[in-house]
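Just curious: can you write a single protein's sequence together with how it folds?
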Amino acid sequence: MTATIRVKRLPHCGDLSLPKYETGGAAGLDLVAAISHNTYIDLGIRERVLVPTGFALELPDGYEAQVRPRSGLAARHGVTVLNAPGTIDADYRGEVMVLLVNLGDAPFRISRGMRIAQLVVAPVTRVTLVEVAALGETPRAGGGFGSTGG
């Protein structure tokens, strides 16, 4: 399934590439840091920062975009997306930003053009909630976290 999404390059994106799939089977478009030339963001241990990406989207109605961590940054450095997945709604027209957090044991340096997250575009299902006095029974019932033995 493919969808056409309009994207606006912002002035500070300049020479950076717009989000793109790195492989033919990739589910997410890679997002890069659109910070100023010759500057860095030094992300200390347990610190968080909003990193600009240099573009804005016009998602079609019925779609959302999810900002997700890059597995390599998480595995090697403990750097991840704090509100993963971060949701970009179809009616949002501002710059896509990535909220990174350093859960690792060393400071982490972010530079211009560094791949910092990925963007997955997905259809949205709208629902109607109907209030009821009781819910249908299941063998699991109200068993929550860890109740299935996992």
Summary: The two ends are 34 Å apart (CA to CA). The helical segments are 71-77. The chain has a mean pLDDT of 94.
